[in-house]
Amino acid sequence: MTTSLDKAADAGGPAPAADDGGSAAARRAIDWRALLIEAGITAGIVFMLSITLVGIHIANVTGGLAILTRFADVVAAVVLAFVGRVGIVLIREGQPIPVLIGGVAAAILGLFVPPMSLIGPIFSALTGGEWTPSVMLQVVQVAGGVVIALRAAWVTWRTRGTLAEQDQRTGGVDRFGAQVQRATRFIGPIAVVFAFSLPFLFYDRATIDLATLVVTYIMLAWGLNIIVGLAGLLDLGYVAFYAVGAYSYALLATEFGLSFWICLPLAGVFAATAGLILGFPVLRLRGDYFAIVTLGFGEIIRIILLNWTQLTGGPDGISGIARPSFFGIADFTRRPAEDQLAFHDWLGIEFDGIHRIIFLYYLILVLALFVNFVSIRIRRLPIGRAWEALREDDVACQSLGINRRNIKLVAFTISASFGGLAGSFFATRQGFISPESFQFIESAIILAIVVLGGMGSQAGIVLAAILMIGMPEVFRELEQYRMLAFGALMVTIMVWRPRGLLSHRDPTISLAAGSKPPPDAAKRGARP
Amino acid sequence: MTGAGAATPLLEVEHLTMRFGGLVAIDDVSFAAAPKEITAIIGPNGAGKTTVFNCLTGFYKPTEGRLTLRRDRQALLLERMEGHHIAVKGGIARTFQNIRLFANMSVLENLLVAQHYRLMTASVFCVAGLLRLPGYTRAERRAVDKARAWLERIDLIDRADENAGNLPYGAQRRLEIARAMCTDPVLLCLDEPAAGLNPRETAELNDLITGIRDEFGIGILLIEHDMSVVMRISDHVVVLDYGCKISDGTADFVKNDPAVIRAYLGADEEEQIAMPAGTPADGSGPPGGGEARP
C-alpha cells in the first residue's frame, strides 16, 4: 500500500515545481484505492489506541469504581483521523489547494459548531445511548484542521520555489538561530530590565507567583546546564541537590533558628558537598550508565528523606520554616515580634501581603542572574573549555593532560551548589517541604528545559522554561487534556528544532583579525 | 642521521608485553627513541603499533615491561603514571588514527584546551579567572599568541573561529598535530598522520614533521603505512609484526631486511618493497604497491 503511494510520489516528485499553470487534477493521477487504504490503516491505529485509552474509563461513582464507556468519542476520533490522513496524503500527492480549503473549513466548523454535533445525534439514534461530546475532540478538530491547512499552505508556497531556494531556506533556519544568539546580547539586558520591572507592570499575586516559579526553574536549569549542556553528562537526579539545599535550610532554620541569609550559602555548601560525595563513585561511569546511577541517587535521597523520620519528619515533611526577612532589617509580617521591625512600618507604607511575594521574586531573580553570570564567565575559563572538550571527546582530553575525573567533579560540585541555593529558596518560599516535592518528575522537567532550550544555551533555557512551566498554566482550561496538549507542544518543538530552540554555539574566544601582533612576536610565543 | 641508541635515548621501551585476556597484542618488544630524531614504527595491520602508543600514553597499563622517559635529567617510569600525568609531567603528546578533534569547538579553542594545564594554574581554581585578574588575562593572551603562531604555521589562521569539525580532512590532521604541540611535549607520537591525505598534503606533512623536529628538538614517534613518508623522513625505523619486533635500524637497513619483506609481501614478491624507496622526491606518493594498507 505505502509502496505504491511512495512510487507515485517519487514519479511525480518534481512535477508540481515544473508546471505551474496546469489544473490540480492534471498534475498527478491519484491512486484512490491506495489512499483509502492508507487512511483506513491510520484510522485503524487510532481505533486500537483509543478504544482502551479513551473508550473505557474507570470512574469513581458512589459505592466504588465503575467502568464507563465513551465509544462515541472513539468513533469521532477515528473519523477525524481518517479525514485528516486523507488530507495529508492529498498534500503529499500534490493537491494542496482543496486540502487547504478543507482544513480551514474543519477548523472553523470545530470552533463555531458545537463539537461533533453531526455525529452525536446519529450515534444517539443508532445506539439509543446518551452522548456528551468532549471538549478535547473539538480541540483536536480545530488544531488538526489548522495544522493540515498550514501544511497545505506551506506546500503550495514551496512548490513555487526552486530546489536551490529551498536549500537556502533550510540554511536560513540555522542562520536564524545564530542571529537570535547574537541578538541576545541586546535582548538579554532588555529581558533583565523587564524581569525587574515585572512586579510593577503586573501588580498581581498570581502573575508574580507564576513568574517566581518560572525563574526558579530557569535557575535550576542554568545550574543543570553546567553538567548536561557543558560537560555533556546526562544527570537524571539533579533534584537530589535541590532537596539537599531545601532540607539543609529547613533543618538549620527550625532546629537552630538560623536566619535565611546565613543558611543560603550554607545550603549551597551542603549541596556542593553532596555533589562531591555522590560524584566520586559516579564519575567513573560514562554515558547511559552515568545517567542510570544519577537517577538512582536522586531516588535514594528522596527515600532517605522519606524514611529518616527522626531527622526529616518523614512523609510529614518540615513545616513552619522561617520566611526570609528583608536582609535581616525588617520582617514581612503585619505584627512582627517585639524586637523586630516590620517592613511596612520601616518604609512607612500600608501593610500588604504582596510585599513578601515581590521580595521573594526579586530574591530568586538575583540568585538566577548570579548563576547565569557565573555560568557565562566559567564557560570562557579553561575549566569551561575543558568541560566542553570533555563532551566532545574525553579520550582526546586525557591525551592533552586533562584530569577527567577532577574536571567532571568540579562541574558536578558547582552545579550541585546552584541546585542547593535554589532548594533553600524553595523551602523559604513554601514554608513547608516534604519529600513529595522532590520526585523524579522534577529532575525530568529541569532536564527537559535544558534539552529543549538547546544544550548549553543560556537564552534557550529561558525560553524553554517559560514554555515548559508557563504553558501548563495557560493550558489549564483544557483540564485533564492539559498534559496531552503539553506533550503535543513538546513533540512539535522537537520535530521543528531537533537540537533545541536555540542550539547555536558561540566560540568562547575568537581570534579578532585586528589584534594581530607582529609575526616575529607570534613566533617567539610558539617556542616552548 | 644517527642510528638507534645514540647517546642517551629519550624513550626506552624494555620488554613491553601487553595481553588482552589470551591475546598477546605486544610480545616482549624493546626499542629506544632518541631525542631530535624521528622514529617510525611500521608493520602490517594488527601488528600492535597503536597498542604500543596506547601503552606509552597511559591508555593501557602494560602487562609487563618498562617504559622509561628521560626528561630534564630525570627518568620517568611511564607505566606507573596516571594517564593525564603522562601528558603534563611526562611531556608525551599524541594524535589519533581516527582524528579526535573537538569537532563542535572552534579551531582556536582546540588549541587552547591543549594548554589547559598552564591556563588552569594561572586561573587559580577559577577565582582569578572569574574575576579576570591581570595575571590570568596575561596567561590567556600568551596562550592565544601561541595558538596563533601554530595556526599560522599550519596555514589555518583564517579559519581560527570555525568549528574544527567543518575543516577539510587534511587540515584536521594538521590541526591535531598543532594541538598536540601546544602541550609543549618532549615526545610527539603521531598515529598515521598521513592516512587519507593526497600526495601534495603528504609532502606538506613531511615538511611540518621534520620542521617540528629541527626547530623544537623533540623526539617524534611515528606510526605510518605510507612508505613515502616513512622512508623519507624517519631517522630510525622499528618494524613490528604480530606483536613482535622483527627489524630495527635505519630506513635503508629495514627496507632491505628479508624479515621485513617477508612480513609485508610474502617471500615471493621481493621486488615490490623496493618501490616506495624509489618514489620520486616531489612526493607524488607510491602507486599503491608500497602501502601496506589492505
Structural class given helices, strands, pairing of chain B?
A: alpha/beta
Largest sheet of chain B: 6 strands, mixed
Query: Helix and strand string of chain B, N-terminal first?
Result: EEEHEEHEHHHHHEHEHEEHHH
Low-pLDDT segments of chain A: 1-26, 513-528
Q: Assembly state here?
A: heterodimer
**CATH fold label of the largest domain in chain A:** ABC transporter involved in vitamin B12 uptake, BtuC
Strand order of the largest sheet of chain A: 1-2
CATH architectural grouping of the largest domain in chain A: Orthogonal Bundle
Order of helices and strands of chain A: HHHHEEHHHHHHHHHHEHHHHHEHHHH
Total helices of chain A: the number is 23
* Radius of gyration from the alpha-carbon trace of chain B, in angstroms: 20 Å
Based on helices, strands and strand pairing, what is the structural class of chain A?
Answer: mainly alpha
Helix content of chain B: 25-40%
The number of domains of chain A:
2
The proportion of residues in beta strands of chain B is 15-25%
What is the tally of helical segments of chain B? 12
| Biggest sheet overview of chain A | 2 strands, antiparallel
Helix content of chain A: over 70%
Number of strands of chain A: 4
Characterise the protein shown here.
The complex is a heterodimer of chains A (528) and B (294). The longest helix of chain A is centred in the middle third of the chain and has 39 residues. Chain A is globular, with a radius of gyration of 29 Å. Chain A has two domains: 163 residues, no CATH class; 311 residues, ABC transporter involved in vitamin B12 uptake, BtuC, CATH 1.10.3470. Chain A has 528 residues and is mainly α. In chain A, the strands form two sheets. A two-stranded antiparallel ribbon of chain A has the order 1-2. Chain A has a two-stranded antiparallel ribbon with strand order 3-4. The termini of chain A are far apart. Chain A has 23 helices and four strands. The N terminus and C terminus of chain A are likely disordered. In chain A, strand 1 and strand 2 form a beta hairpin. Chain B folds into two domains: 187 residues, P-loop containing nucleotide triphosphate hydrolases (Rossmann fold, 3-Layer(aba) Sandwich); 83 residues, no CATH class. In chain B, strand 4 and strand 5 form a beta hairpin. In chain B, helix 3 runs parallel beside helix 7. Chain B is globular, with a radius of gyration of 20 Å. Classes of the chains: A mainly alpha (528), B alpha/beta (294). Chains A and B meet through helix 16, helix 17, helix 18 and helix 23 of A and helix 2, helix 3, helix 4 and helix 6 of B.
